[in-house]
C-alpha cells in the first residue's frame, strides 16, 4: 500500500505501516463498518438458530452456486445507480438474452452433431446473448441520454418490452435440453471452486477496475453527483450514460447465462424477484440512490448478507412470501438509516464546533 492509499484509510492510519488492517479499512467508511457488523450479526444469528442445517459444508457450497446470479445483477444495478439512474430491466434483459442463447444451442444444432459442433453452437449462443444484452442496454441508454426520459420510466417500459418479447418467442414455454458442456458452467467446479462463483469474482474485478482504475469511473461518479457540473467540466454525459447502460446490459446477459446454466432451461419469467433484491443489495451496500457514490466492497458484503439471511430462512422453513415481506422491510429500514445518519453526524459536528468556539 502506497502513502496515497494509506491516506485514504482515515486519520488513525499509520503512514509507515504498509500492512493491511481490517479495522483501518472499515474505519474509513461508516457504511462499510455498519454493513460488516450487520453481515456478522446475520451470520451468527442464523448459525445459532439452525446450526445443523446452516453451518455445514453442503450449505456453503449451495450458497456459492446460488448468490452469483444476484451478485452480477446487483453490479449492473450499481453502475446505473452511481450514474444517478436505475435499471429495472436487468431481469428482462437476462431472460431475453438467455432465451436467445438457449434457442441457438438447442434448436439450431443439427441432429447427431458431434461434440465439437455442439461446442461451437454453444459459443455462438453465448456471443449472441452478450451482443443482445449490450444492444438492450444501449437502447435504455439512448432513451435516457438522448431523448431525456427519466431512467425509472425508460427501464420500467423496457422491462415489459423485453419480457413480452421473451414470452412471444417462447410462447410461454421453457426451453430445455441445453448442452451438457454449457450446464457444467452452472453446476460444475474448477479446482474445487464453483464456476458461478468464479464468474462473479471476475465480474467484481472488472467493475472494480472500471470504477477505480479507469477514467470512466471518475466520469461516472462526477456525472452522478452533478450532471451539469460534469458537462461543464468537459465530460460527455451522453457517452458515459451509453457506456453505463451498455455495461448494465452486458452484466445482465452474463447473469442470464449463469441462471439458465444452473437450471438447465430458459424461460421468460425466471428470476422476477431479483429486481427487488438487486435494489436492496445496492442500497444496503452503501450506493447513493441519488448517484455519485458506490463501493464494490459494500455491494459484495450486501450480497453475502442477503444470501446468509435467505439460506437461514430456508433452513427455518420460512415461506417465500414472508421472505419478500422481509426484503421490503429491510429495504425501507436501510433507506431510513442512510437518510438519517448524515443528519445526525452533521448535528453532532455542529454541537461539537459550538462547544469548541464557546
Automatic annotation (TrEMBL):
Bilayer topology: Multi-pass membrane protein
Alphabetical keyword list: Cell inner membrane, Cell membrane, Membrane, Transmembrane, Transmembrane helix, Transport
GO molecular function, one term: transmembrane transporter activity
Source organism, top-level taxon: Bacteria
Transmembrane segments: 32-51, 63-81, 88-109, 121-145, 152-170, 190-211, 240-262, 268-287, 299-319, 325-341
Protein's cellular compartments: Cell membrane
Signal sequence coordinates: none
GO cellular component: plasma membrane
InterPro entries: ABC_transp_permease
A Pfam short name: BPD_transp_2
Main location: membrane
Protein name (record): ABC transporter permease
The species this protein was found in: Paenibacillus pinisoli
Phylogenetic classification of the source organism: Bacteria, Bacillati, Bacillota, Bacilli, Bacillales
Amino acid at each position: 500500500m502506497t502513502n496515497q492509499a494509506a491516506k485514504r484509510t482515515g486519520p488513525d492510519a499509520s503512514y509507515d505501516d504498509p500492512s493491511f488492517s481490517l479495522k483501518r479499512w472499515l474505519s474509513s467508511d461508516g457504511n462499510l463498518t455498519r454493513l460488516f457488523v450487520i453481515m456478522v450479526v446475520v451470520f451468527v444469528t442464523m448459525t445459532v438458530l439452525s446450526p445443523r442445517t446452516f453451518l455445514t459444508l453442503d450449505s456453503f457450497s449451495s450458497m456459492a452456486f446460488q448468490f452469483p446470479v444476484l451478485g452480477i445483477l446487483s453490479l449492473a444495478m450499481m453502475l446505473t445507480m452511481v450514474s444517478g439512474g436505475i435499471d429495472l430491466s436487468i431481469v428482462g434483459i437476462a431472460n431475453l438474452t438467455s432465451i436467445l442463447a438457449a434457442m441457438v444451442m438447442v434448436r439450431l444444432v443439427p441432429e447427431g452433431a458431434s461434440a465439437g459442433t455442439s461446442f461451437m453452437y454453444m459459443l455462438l449462443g453465448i456471443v449472441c446473448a452478450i451482443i443482445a444484452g449490450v444492444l438492450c442496454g444501449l437502447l435504455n441508454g439512448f432513451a435516457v441520454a438522448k431523448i431525456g426520459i427519466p431512467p425509472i420510466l425508460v427501464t420500467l417500459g423496457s422491462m415489459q418490452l423485453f419480457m413480452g418479447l421473451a414470452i412471444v418467442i417462447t410462447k410461454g414455454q421453457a426451453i430445455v435440453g441445453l448442452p451438457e458442456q454449457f450446464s457444467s458452467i452452472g453446476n460444475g467446479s474448477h479446482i474445487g471452486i464453483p464456476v458461478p462463483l468464479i464468474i462473479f469474482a471476475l465480474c467484481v474485478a472488472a467493475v472494480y477496475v472500471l470504477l477505480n482504475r479507469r477514467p470512466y469511473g471518475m466520469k461516472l461518479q462526477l456525472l452522478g453527483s452533478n450532471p451539469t457540473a460534469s458537462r461543464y467540466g468537459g465530460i460527455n454525459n451522453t457517452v458515459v450514460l451509453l457506456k453505463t447502460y451498455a455495461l448494465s446490459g452486458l452484466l445482465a446477459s452474463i447473469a442470464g447465462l449463469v441462471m439458465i446454466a444452473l437450471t438447465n432451461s430458459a424461460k421468460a419469467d425466471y428470476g422476477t424477484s431479483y429486481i427487488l433484491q438487486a435494489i436492496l443489495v445496492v442500497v444496503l451496500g452503501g450506493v447513493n440512490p441519488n448517484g455519485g457514490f458506490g463501493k464494490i466492497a459494500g455491494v459484495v458484503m450486501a450480497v453475502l448478507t442477503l444470501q446468509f439471511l435467505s439460506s437461514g430462512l430456508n433452513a427455518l422453513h420460512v415461506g417465500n412470501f414472508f421472505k419478500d415481506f422481509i426484503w421490503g422491510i429491510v429495504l425501507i429500514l436501510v433507506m431510513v438509516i442512510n437518510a438519517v445518519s448524515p443528519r445526525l453526524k452533521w448535528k453532532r459536528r455542529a454541537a461539537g464546533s459550538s462547544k469548541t468556539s464557546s
